[in-house]
């Protein structure tokens, strides 16, 4: 059973994070609580390092960085995951990441960008800004190759639970937005052993993802390779990237088994 005061503090933190900063009045309006109540929560969170206040704006505090790094470093096989990411990046010369499932979504816990790989101009707003994986970023599973790869390992009932909780929101005109389409795609992924997201998350970008299993056979996440459609195409899409993923995932899973 949840505790109301704790739930309220968590909701306030989520609002501030989603807005990238919020004022006291923003919290009062969105949560619909008394100003004094919101102020007490904000003050307590700030005093304990979970929030900082700059002028009238409350922002997420650095204490979360300490907890986040702790959570990441203790994820099953994390040192091996870092090595696998580096290996995959060198093999494909594209941008690679590892995501972990978390309450029906996926979160990036490691990423690597090859020195030659660039997807548009990252100094301006646009597809490239939305595309680049960032440690700690959450994504809907149905809109990314890694998320689809993880979903493909779930029973149909569990997939339905994810849909009920998070829906199937469209990111682009190519995003899967119907249950029937999603289940059909998951069957194709199970047959070929890896997932392909063709501009479902960002226009002009393709990703290939493969689930990673831990020593006990449970899914601990997925590795993916992403790049622009003009580069991740033809033999690169159909053979080179999938083969590199298979090799790196097999090697990673072997290391996880022998070191567990």
Q: Order of strands across the biggest sheet?
A: 5-4-3-8-7-6
CATH superfamily of the largest domain: GAF domain
Average pLDDT score: 91
Termini gap: 34 Å
Overall radius of gyration: 20 Å
SSE sequence, one letter per element: HHHEEHHEEHEHHHEEEH
**Net shape:** globular
Helix vs. strand class = alpha+beta
* H/I helix tally: 10
Strands, count: 8
GO molecular function: DNA binding; DNA-binding transcription factor activity
Pfam families: HTH_IclR, IclR_C
GO biological process, one term: negative regulation of DNA-templated transcription
Keywords: DNA-binding, Transcription, Transcription regulation
Name the features:
Beta-Lactamase; globular; DNA-binding transcription factor activity; six-stranded antiparallel beta sheet; single chain; 10 helices; alpha+beta; 48% helix; Arc Repressor Mutant, subunit A; two-stranded antiparallel ribbon; 260 residues
Question: In terms of topology, how is this protein built?
Answer:
Blueprint (H helix, E strand, L loop, with lengths): L3 H16 L4 H8 L3 H13 L3 E4 L2 E4 L2 H11 L4 H15 L2 E8 L2 E8 L14 H5 L6 E3 L4 H7 L4 H11 L12 H14 L2 E4 L6 E9 L5 E10 L5 H26 L1
Antiparallel strand pairs: 1-2, 3-4, 3-8, 4-5, 6-7, 7-8
Helix pairs in contact: 2-3, 5-10
Task: Describe this entry's structure for a reader.
- With 260 residues, this protein is α+β, with helices and mostly antiparallel strands.
- It has two domains: 4-61, Winged helix-like DNA-binding domain superfamily/Winged helix DNA-binding domain (Arc Repressor Mutant, subunit A, Orthogonal Bundle); 75-259, GAF domain (Beta-Lactamase).
- 48% of the residues lie in helices and 19% in strands.
- The protein is built from ten helices and eight strands.
- It has a six-stranded antiparallel β-sheet with strand order 5-4-3-8-7-6, sandwiched between helices. Strands 1-2 form a two-stranded antiparallel ribbon.
- The longest helix has 26 residues, at 234-259.
- The radius of gyration is 20 Å and the shape is globular.
- The chain starts with a helix and ends with a helix.
């Amino acid at each position: 059973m949840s505790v109301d005061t704790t739930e309220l503090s968590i909701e306030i933190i989520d609002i501030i994070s989603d807005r990238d900063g919020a004022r006291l009045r923003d919290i009062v309006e969105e949560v619909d609580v008394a100003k004094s109540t919101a102020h007490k929560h904000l003050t307590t969170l700030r005093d304990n390092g979970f929030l900082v206040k700059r002028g009238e704006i409350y922002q997420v505090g650095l204490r979360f960085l300490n907890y986040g790094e702790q959570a990441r470093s203790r994820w099953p096989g994390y040192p091996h995951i870092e090595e696998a990411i580096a290996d995959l990046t060198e093999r494909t010369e594209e941008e690679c990441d590892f995501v972990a499932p978390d309450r029906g979504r996926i979160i990036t816990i490691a990423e690597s960008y090859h020195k030659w790989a660039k997807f548009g101009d990252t100094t301006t707003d646009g597809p490239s800004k939305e595309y680049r994986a960032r440690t700690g970023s959450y994504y809907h599973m149905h809109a990314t190759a890694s998320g689809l790869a993880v979903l493909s390992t779930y029973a149909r009932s569990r997939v339905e639970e994810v849909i009920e909780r998070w829906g199937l929101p469209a990111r682009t005109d190519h995003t899967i937005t119907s249950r029937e389409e999603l289940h059909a795609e998951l069957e194709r992924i199970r047959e070929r052993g890896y997932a392909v997201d063709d501009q479902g998350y960002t226009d002009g970008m393709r990703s290939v993802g493969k689930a990673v299993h831990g020593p006990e056979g449970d899914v601990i996440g997925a590795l993916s390779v992403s790049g622009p459609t003009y580069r991740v195409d033809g033999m690169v899409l159909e053979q080179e990237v999938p083969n590199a993923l298979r090799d790196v995932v097999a090697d990673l899973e072997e290391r996880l088994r022998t070191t567990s």
